[in-house]
Amino acid sequence: MSNYMREDLTDEYGILQLQNKILEIMVYIDGFCREHDIVYYLMGGSALGAMRHKGFIPWDDDLDIFMDHANYFKFLDCCEKYLDTERFYLQREDTDENPYFFSKIRMNGTTCLNSVCPFGHQGIFVDIMCLNNAPKGKFAKKVQYYSAGLLKARSVGKTYYKTSSAKKKIEIAIANIFVRGFVKKLLLRSVRKYNKKSAEEYAHVFGRAKFCNSFYPTIDFGKPRMVPFEKVSLAVPANVEDYLTIRYGKNYMQMPDEKTKAIYQSHAMVWDTEKDYSEYIK
Question: Are strands 125-133 and 201-203 parallel, antiparallel or unpaired?
């Protein structure tokens, strides 16, 4: 067992082995990014876990990072050439097996089945998200945000996702009909067209955050700050406290109540750290 794996903790949520395997993937990604001069940051619950728990949020069964547009596509290109394919698999965005607009690094010889990406490789994974430059002005930001929303709805419509929300059902139905071909390209251009210019804010619009929690000053990112995460150190935004305040509110260091915990449901329906997913889907 690698020296950064945890084996001396109470496994209250029954996911310690899964978290250890996710951390193993992330340690590889961290080294890969260092080798190829790629900047990444822990994001969302992973950044929150780093600051509040010095590691995973105890009940969290995934890990997310993001990169700005240039680093994101550099990362994908480097993975195509240099990824250790005996151990890992790159699941690129906007493909038949991953219809979403973020990518994944999955581990071979493992299983993490869910309804989000139900096709192709189903190994345990780390999500790689893209920060896009944001426009100035609230209206332009809303165009960017809701363009991404339609693309997300179209992506969801290609999976086994189920919802009881009538509003979401209508959004998915509309997206399934109209978000294709030229319309899809136009929407994606609306999201990413600001990346060739400098910007004062980043937009993370392919996640779950509401509009008011999706835009962050670029000055808060800059040179990554290395912070403890379990038994290793990983990168967070330079002003991670400001980022987390925008994303989760000023009380982000407080432990949530059970109702709030329930909002963030488990990503893994079935997982196995030693068995290939193909044995589960025969």
Answer: antiparallel
